[in-house]
Amino acid sequence: MSPESKKLFNIIILGVAFMFMFTAFQTCGNVAQTVIRSLNRTDFHGSGYTSMAIIYGVFSASNLITPSVVAIVGPQLSMFASGLFYSMYIAVFIQPFPWSFYTASVFIGIAAAESDRRTVFIALTVISLVGTVLFFLIRKPDSENVLGEDESSDDQDMEVNESAQNNLTKAVDAFKKSFKLCVTKEMLLLSITTAYTGLELTFFSGVYGTCIGATNKFGAEEKSLIGLSGIFIGIGEILGGSLFGLLSKNNRFGRNPVVLLGILVHFIAFYLIFLNMPGDAPIAPVKGTDSSAYIKSSKEVAILCSFLLGLGDSCFNTQLLSILGFLYSEDSAPAFAIFKFVQSICAAVAFFYSNYLLLHWQLLLMVIFGFFGTISFFTVEWEAAAFVARGSDYRSI
């Protein structure tokens, strides 16, 4: 197999593996609070919000050390171990206990009826394990240096040792650069935008589905609407990611219009959710809530908001990744580590306060962070455009 074919093969395997693994995990996260809330009528007592807060809290801290871990054990084993932890978290739902539920949530960061619930989560666990095993199909690239007749095995051992030392040095350097990047003006401004993506990630991936499932006004179909909501969030993500990802290659107007569209779409979704959902839906008891919203709760509006949440999220994420890759093309690993760190810690905080705050307060927090996050993104994008117009390299460190 040629090197190009091997790269393509690895990309396909990675895509399929992550598709299986995160299909299972995201589905699990979307229904976690609803499932756990129904189990609280038994001897089990826990919170899906708290579980997800632990996951993203540990994940945020892990972003600072994972480059060093990958440099030592390699990417293939790192991804396989992470996949096992994801599968373990999903498997806990088959027969959950509070200690195992929250312990599995920690490892994840580092990496209906009773019978129906077991069947669903057994299937999700199998799907996640299939994706995890696929990592072993990844083929290592051919070594550039082939042992020849004039090269001794001792020389080869020295090269291997030097390579290991170089990997460790690179990991340490990336760790140091991450801290230096944290205090640059551009990264501080973009951190506000990133913080907003963490808050809205929490909302659409865990809180909104719980609100739909807790609204008794939707009738007997309230629980089935959670899955439909997740589907339409995915449709919005796919449409926005493909559309704005392609447009960014030939976009003469820059990234700001896409971010502006994203915040407007989100504001519309937040306003409709505010009108359509009861205020106590995020923290409703096991039996749900019979409280009335400002308008008659509509299934169609709820699903439309799901689509808008996914579409708006794709606007922000595509443009944030684009501007980070542009600004820090020579320091991409530390820059993206900071991006995931800020996003994850804000998601963890949001999952934690979701246990206590009513819906309108959660929406208000997202509106505030969304507004200032958009302004800060505009500021960085205008400065980047000014440097490009002058033909200068945009570097802050």
From TrEMBL:
<dbReference type="Pfam" id="PF05978">
    <property type="entry name" value="UNC-93"/>
</dbReference>
<keyword id="KW-0812">Transmembrane</keyword>
<feature type="transmembrane region" description="Helical">
    <location>
        <begin position="359"/>
        <end position="380"/>
    </location>
</feature>
<dbReference type="InterPro" id="IPR010291">
    <property type="entry name" value="Ion_channel_UNC-93"/>
</dbReference>
<keyword id="KW-0472">Membrane</keyword>
<feature type="transmembrane region" description="Helical">
    <location>
        <begin position="86"/>
        <end position="113"/>
    </location>
</feature>
<feature type="transmembrane region" description="Helical">
    <location>
        <begin position="258"/>
        <end position="277"/>
    </location>
</feature>
<feature type="transmembrane region" description="Helical">
    <location>
        <begin position="187"/>
        <end position="205"/>
    </location>
</feature>
<keyword id="KW-0325">Glycoprotein</keyword>
<feature type="transmembrane region" description="Helical">
    <location>
        <begin position="12"/>
        <end position="33"/>
    </location>
</feature>
<feature type="transmembrane region" description="Helical">
    <location>
        <begin position="119"/>
        <end position="138"/>
    </location>
</feature>
<dbReference type="InterPro" id="IPR036259">
    <property type="entry name" value="MFS_trans_sf"/>
</dbReference>
<dbReference type="InterPro" id="IPR051617">
    <property type="entry name" value="UNC-93-like_regulator"/>
</dbReference>
<comment type="similarity">
    <text>Belongs to the unc-93 family.</text>
</comment>
<feature type="transmembrane region" description="Helical">
    <location>
        <begin position="301"/>
        <end position="328"/>
    </location>
</feature>
<feature type="transmembrane region" description="Helical">
    <location>
        <begin position="225"/>
        <end position="246"/>
    </location>
</feature>
<protein>
    <recommendedName>
        <fullName>UNC93-like protein MFSD11</fullName>
    </recommendedName>
</protein>
<keyword id="KW-1133">Transmembrane helix</keyword>
<dbReference type="GO" id="GO:0016020">
    <property type="term" value="C:membrane"/>
</dbReference>
<feature type="transmembrane region" description="Helical">
    <location>
        <begin position="53"/>
        <end position="74"/>
    </location>
</feature>
<feature type="transmembrane region" description="Helical">
    <location>
        <begin position="335"/>
        <end position="353"/>
    </location>
</feature>
